[in-house]
Amino acid sequence: MNGVRTTSGQKIEPFGRKFGKLPKRALKRVGIVDVGSNSIRLVVFDGAARSPAYFYNEKVMAGLGQDMATTGRLNPAGVERGFSALARFAALAKSMDIEPLTCVATAAVREAEDGPAFQARVEKETGLKLWVIDGQEEARLSAQGVLLGWPDAKGLVCDIGGNSLELAVVENGKVGKRVTSQLGPFRLQQVPADKLQAHITAILTELAQEVGTDHERIYLVGGSWRAIARLDMERSDYPMTVLHEYRMTPEAVAQTIDWMGQHDLNTLRGKVGISSSRIELVPLAGQVLSQLIGVFAPTELAVSSFGIREGLLYEHMSETLRRRDPLIEAARFTEKQMARLPGFGKKLYQFLLPLFPDLPPERDRLMQAACLLHDTAWRAHPDYRAEACFDNVTRANMAALSHPERIYLGLALLHRYKNNRAQSQLAPLFALLSEEEILAAEILGKAMRFGAMFAIDDLADAASLVHVPGESVTLNLTKTGRALMGEVARSRFQSLCKSMKVEGRIE
Fold first, then answer.
1. Domains of the chain by range and CATH?
2. pLDDT tens for each residue of 237-282
3. Which of 113, 414, 457, 474 could form a disulfide with 505 if both were Cys (CB 3.0 to 4.6 A apart)?
4. Could you check whether the bond before residue 239 is cis, i.e. omega within 30 degrees of 0?
């Protein structure tokens, strides 16, 4: 992209060069406003760390782009709701000492006849400068949001808004070809029902010629897609409600769309907590999704809660920071803020490594995260620490963590505080793991439960482990280690060895 133009014709640089690549500690809180066709949202990120925390998040369903397809103008009621929201967001940002806010406007403002007037009024009366971006830039930023959450993402990002739909190819940490269209539900409301399917298919077929159809996975960005995913969870009685990284097969999507047609949407809305303004657009979004699957034939669809706002945050990151693992960065941050002995997690990981030889990379990173998080729930009542650990991880706003991985990590932390999981109210979630994965999580948890007994600065000088797979685990103790090896530690060591089905030796 060679830059976008403001309403006055002044050329500005693309966001990447406007922000520059700042080091991790050069930023504190970052405030971003996304002015979309249906919603306007303020997000304040707590710094530009690789896995940022959401310090503040507020959304207003303004409906700026409603009826724009027929009038060519922004919805008058939406304009007033939108202006009220932006005035509030400006005041909030000022009170948080976050200035200036980065504000982007997408399809509705860029296409409406009175978009420039709305833009000028916002700047004059609130001081907020709206950067009106074109469809290609919108696609790029949405794709970057997916890369923030999925560093190894490979496939096609599909971002649906009220008045537009964007596609972008992602691979090897980069955004490739990208295209935009007017396939948003507000636009489709103006297409006769008997011509709708052919209309959607024709546009998607044209887009496919630009970005190709050889994409096994489609990453779904946008509120309408998330609403369909939440309904898919309801239909299939899925045990979690975390939408980020929720996976669906084309067959499951087809079943859910059929199921939606057989039920009253307002009844479903009440069950899953979707807003009335959002649920009205879901049937049209469902038709787009059906045709999207038909044209691109993916094997899997993955829901991303990260989009244009996270893509803007990604602009702040240096290449070095982008290459870091979001899960490990989030775990390190949590340990630093909440653990009794920050820094011990790394020592615990090193201490336990001999128990897990030839650990595959995807399991090793979970072990690292678990060790960093193993003591971050200590403020909870002892009776509830195990469940608090599990709940914190499975519901945490973490990236680069699939749903089964969330359960694995949560179960390991549960066993860090509790030997037995029998009759746990969390049992339905365990079904997302195989028996082998459940046992592996239990062993890791019991290993951390034992290792936590040596929570001193010089752990490496107190004890070490020698593991002969399938036969024994030997604990070698120094003088300091012998002093720490009390009755409880011995009991935890034997429990660990029992789960590993090996003989436990203490020397």
1. 15-133 (3.30.420.40), 136-310 (3.30.420.150), 325-506 (1.10.3210.10)
2. 999 999 999 999 999 999 999 999 999 988 999 889 898 888 999 9
3. 474
4. no
